[in-house]
């Protein structure tokens, strides 16, 4: 059973698990779901709102879905989901139904159309309140060389956290 909670209740586990990867779920305008592994993100306050900032490259299928619907959910995987984290970070939702192929169960979100994933220990339901495309000219040469050699610069999505859920 999922219950609403505050950021303090899940902040430590969320930032710890981010190092291994969190699962970003999205929904398209056609109602189809996708899940993608993220290893970069920030949780905090911005513009007087609780925000989860995620970075998505324009080449990713997830990018199109967030652009269409302006919602996403960040799911904190439970222990033992390493193979799912790896899979969802290496194949595209354009070519794979990752939720079905990994045997995941998508549950209806409470505040957004994007689903939460059963088996995860915490969930952030977010609505996009801002976005920013990275400007290569403003990045250090080291970041440019190590993270953007292909030129596929992230868009940063600032999601207002509408609800945080955790296992009861």
Helix/strand layout:
Layout: E1 2-4, H1 7-18, E2 22-27, E3 33-38, E4 41-46, E5 49-56, H2 61-69, E6 71-77, H3 82-88, H4 98-101, E7 106-107, E8 116-117, E9 120-133, H5 141-147, E10 155-167
Antiparallel strand pairs: 1-10, 2-3, 2-6, 4-5, 5-10, 6-9, 7-8, 9-10
Describe this structure in words.
This protein has 168 residues and is of the alpha+beta class. It is built from five helices and ten strands. It is globular and about 45 Å long. A hairpin with a 2-residue loop joins strand 4 (41-46) and strand 5. The strands form two sheets. Strands 1, 2, 3, 4, 5, 6, 9 and 10 form an eight-stranded antiparallel sheet that branches. A two-stranded antiparallel sheet has the order 7-8. It has helices spanning 7-18, 61-69, 82-88, 98-101, 141-147, and strands spanning 2-4, 22-27, 33-38, 41-46, 49-56, 71-77, 106-107, 116-117, 120-133, 155-167. The protein has a single domain (2-167), classed as Pnp Oxidase, Chain A, CATH 2.30.110.10.
